Amino acid sequence: MARIDKEKLRQLAHNIMLDLSEQELEKLSNEFDVILKQMDLVQKIDTTNVHSMHFPFEITVTGLRDDEEIEQVSQAELLANAPVVEDEYIVINKVVK
After folding, report:
1. CA–CA separation, 6 vs 4, rounded Å?
2. Regarding predicted confidence, which is higher, 58 or 48?
3. Is there a smaller number of Cβ atoms within 10 Å at the N or the C end of the chain?
4. How high is the pLDDT of residue 41?
5. Can you tell me whether residue 70 is helix, strand or coil?
6. Where is 84: in which H helix or E strand?
7. In sequence order, what are the residues at sequence separation of 6 or more whose Cβ sits closer than 8 angstroms to the Cβ of residue 22?
């Protein structure tokens, strides 16, 4: 797998509004190297005779509860509490690219 270098990490950190020091970038880069090496090892495992599974355990009991009626707030009441509304949607500031 391709290496995730400090420049790529710096760009990603900027996109999510994080300010990372050079030491933090170096540490993250090294940690990603370890993770990618482990993923390479996982990719090399022979799974030709292994059946695919959605869940690793047999489930005999579903832990579902009975439906209960709940009180709902109307859309008008909800939108009345929003600072900015446009076309029946709440408007918020964009936080990521």
Report:
1. 7
2. 48
3. C
4. 94
5. coil
6. none
7. 6
Question: What span, in angstroms and rounded, lies between the C-alpha atoms of 62 and 48?
Answer: 31
Sole residue written with tokens 């500031």: 93
> Residue 59: pLDDT above 90?
no
Q: Which secondary structure element, helix H or strand E, spans residue 45, and what is its range?
A: none
- 30: three-class secondary structure by DSSP: helix
Contact in structure between 90 and 84 (CB atoms under 8 Å): yes
Distance from CA of residue 27 to its chain's centroid?
21
1 pLDDT higher than 80:
no
Task: Give the whole-angstrom CA distance, residue 91 versus residue 83.
Answer: 8
Residue spans of beta strands (DSSP E) within the chain:
85-86, 89-90
**Considering only CA atoms, which of 55, 32, 51, 35 is closest in space to residue 43?**
35
For 38-56, how does the pLDDT look when each residue is reduced to its tens digit (9 = 90+)? 999 999 999 999 888 887 7
Token reading at 19: 């300010």
Residue type, 6: K
